[in-house]
Write a structure and sequence with these properties.
single chain, about 140 residues, alpha+beta, Bit1, two-stranded antiparallel sheet, about 25% strand
Length: about 140
């Protein structure tokens, strides 16, 4: 199946693996919650046991230095692309309300970003995240 849109998540390349995985998980949930009809049908095994629906669209996971993340967010914002963000301070919180509170402490240009996720037209995603590398 061919998609006109692309889902991409970029994480700071200097994070430990466990933090990268945490950021990708949270940003994926943000991207999926912003887009209707992106979850497929439930899965069923041969015995009829049902399992949760998954996103119907593939995702690309990228990496970049932290200094580039602000540039990526600026590019997304200038194109009115809604972004899911994760900042460094969120690693020290324990719940959603505290996460949101940490973000309110920063102006857009000074957010201590460690990850950004977006879903939009493929060409726009490529322009926004130009300079990021495929995560290995």
């Amino acid at each position: 199946m061919e998609f006109d849109t692309k889902i991409a998540i970029v994480v700071a390349d200097d994070l430990p693996v466990w933090k990268k995985l945490n950021v990708v998980a949270f940003l994926t949930s943000g991207v999926i919650n912003e887009n209707e009809n992106i979850a497929g049908e439930e899965y069923r095994d041969a015995e009829g046991k049902s399992y949760s629906r998954l996103c119907v669209q593939p995702m690309v996971i990228l990496k970049a230095g932290r200094e580039k993340l602000s540039t990526f967010l600026q590019r997304a914002n200038s194109r009115d692309v809604r972004s899911a963000i994760y900042i460094e301070d969120m690693f020290a919180t324990g719940h959603d309300a505290a996460n949101r509170e940490t973000v309110t402490k920063y102006e857009t240009g000074s957010l201590p970003l460690v990850g950004i996720g977006i879903r939009t037209d493929k060409k726009v995603v490529d322009k926004v995240f130009k300079g990021a590398k495929l995560h290995d």
